[in-house]
Design a protein that fits this description.
- It is built from four helices and no strands.
- The longest helix has 29 residues, at 62-90.
- With 124 residues, it is mostly helical.
- Helix content is 81%, strand content 0%.
Length: 124
């Protein structure tokens, strides 16, 4: 599938897996599980935004694509807030620092990978 959201999802999942494995090796199961939860809180809404925003393609759909980005970003923020609320109410033994480490790492990987996955940077 030649969908930009798939490439971002794969890069986020790969780096998130590395974070979880490293966390398990150096800090133990609770840290790794907490980091995995934080990674999922970032990956799920980002995937939703990616698929929502890129539903329409082509120059003729520019207005629709722009609208989809705004709606998708709203969905992403709402789902992120809901997921954080759910994990803090349902899981009592999470390590807060690990949850945020997983979340922040995954968000940064997603944001930094987009230019490279969509054709690289321009050289002037």
């Amino acid at each position: 599938m030649n969908h930009p959201a798939v490439a971002v999802f794969i890069s986020q999942t790969a780096i998130s897996s590395a974070v979880v494995i490293i966390g398990y090796v150096f800090e133990g199961f609770t840290f790794a599980f907490s980091a995995a939860i934080g990674c999922c809180v970032a990956i799920v809404p980002q995937g939703l935004l990616g698929f929502w925003a890129f539903r329409d393609r082509g120059a003729r759909n520019a207005r629709s694509i722009a609208r989809n980005f705004f709606v998708g970003e709203g969905l992403k923020l709402g789902v992120t807030a809901i997921l954080f609320a759910v994990i803090w109410t349902c899981f009592s033994k999470l390590e807060t620092s690990a949850v945020f480490a997983g979340f922040v790492t995954t968000v940064l990987v997603g944001q930094l990978s987009i230019p490279f996955l969509l054709g690289g940077t321009r050289k002037y």
